[in-house]
Amino acid sequence: MRDLFDKSELLQWTEYTMQIVGSQEKNDFGDLLLYLAYSAKTEKLFITVAKAYNLRPMDITGASDPYVRCEQIYQRKRIKLRKTSIKRANLNPVYHECLEFDLALNQIDETNILIQVMDWDRYVLLYQ
């Protein structure tokens, strides 16, 4: 999500679809739909995790128990971690959950948001 502030007007809700890639740089893990907005007045970044689709099955049952982790990283240090709920046995989970991060205007350039799609009963399912 680097350069997102440069690429979009986040003072209004911005739709962002990201391809989920694995550690081997494979691109067949599915997609994640996010909505982002930034409030300059309250200095908060809002990330609404809408849904994921076409996730790769990670359980022996042919499903996954996915959730989404969002980490706010400032100057290479984790500041805040937020998670969605777990959607059991679902390869196309719908979340519609808003995750909120405090983000001062003067910290935007040195802040990264790491978004990971995880499987509840595995260490790491997918990550971006």
UniProtKB/TrEMBL annotation:
SUPFAM superfamilies in alphabetical order: C2 domain (Calcium/lipid-binding domain, CaLB)
Gene3D superfamilies in UniProt: C2 domain
UniProt protein name: C2 domain-containing protein
Species the sequence originates in: Panagrolaimus superbus
Entry GO MF terms: calcium ion binding; calcium-dependent phospholipid binding; clathrin binding; phosphatidylserine binding; SNARE binding
Domain of life of the organism encoding this protein: Eukaryota
Transmembrane segment boundaries: none
Record-level GO BP terms: calcium ion-regulated exocytosis of neurotransmitter; synaptic vesicle endocytosis
Lineage start: Eukaryota, Metazoa, Ecdysozoa, Nematoda, Chromadorea
Pfam families per record: C2
Domain called C2: residue spans: 28-128
InterPro entries found in the cross-reference section: C2_dom, C2_domain_sf
Any single Gene Ontology cellular-component annotation: plasma membrane
